[in-house]
Design a protein that fits this description.
about 190 residues, mainly beta, Lipocalin, 2 domains, ten-stranded antiparallel barrel, 10 strands
């Protein structure tokens, strides 16, 4: 009996040594990391300069101010570091954008995608109280097109004006001119 007990002690010591050598078990390797405290990395005033666009909006063409052309919702996400836009036009276009202040480059960046396969990447900064973002994309026939959007805080809403140029920025043509007003069904104040 003492022989059996001694063999068990040796086996237990061997198993303990093996565990110490091999490191953590599979279950501890895949355990979730501890929950981190909320990040304050996006608390600087620069990250709040585009907050005037946050809200639940109905969009109207400036030239036909009584006809609703879209619904647009802009929310702060990812601990306030990113603006998520969800745009749904009356014609069925559905687009979303992610907009973030890139502190390392001191520039605002937006990536816009749609259910029609469109992609637009624009960047820029605040100019006085307006946000101005620009970039390039390709026309249907493959020509480089410059795009510039300006978001302007307006009484009770936000105006977004977009222009394009296919001659390197020498001349600009209107693309769209929208007025965002608080959505009729919202109940949420803009810039929340």
């Amino acid at each position: 009996m003492n022989m059996v007990l001694s063999e068990w002690k040796i086996a237990i010591v061997f198993a303990a040594a093996l565990i110490m050598i091999m490191g953590p078990t599979r279950s501890t390797l895949h355990s979730p990391p501890p929950v981190a405290a909320k990040s304050s990395s996006c608390a600087a005033p620069e990250y709040r300069s585009f907050d005037f666009w946050v809200g639940d909006w109905d969009a109207f063409d400036v030239e036909n101010p009584n006809k609703k052309v879209a619904h647009n919702r802009v929310d702060r996400i990812l601990d306030g570091c990113v603006l998520l836009e969800d745009y749904q036009s009356a014609e069925g276009e559905h687009g979303q954008s992610f907009t973030i202040y890139d502190a390392s480059r001191k520039v605002w960046h937006q990536t816009w995608v749609t259910n029609q396969g469109a992609l637009l990447v624009i960047e820029g900064n605040m100019h006085a109280s307006d946000m101005v973002l620009g970039g390039t994309d390709l026309t249907a026939d493959g020509k480089k097109r410059y795009v510039r959007g300006t978001w302007i805080p307006a009484s009770g809403g936000v105006r977004e004006v977009a222009v394009t140029s296919t001659d390197g920025g020498k001349t600009w043509k209107p693309w769209f001119d929208l007025m965002f007003r608080p959505a009729a069904t919202s109940g949420q104040p803009p810039g929340r």
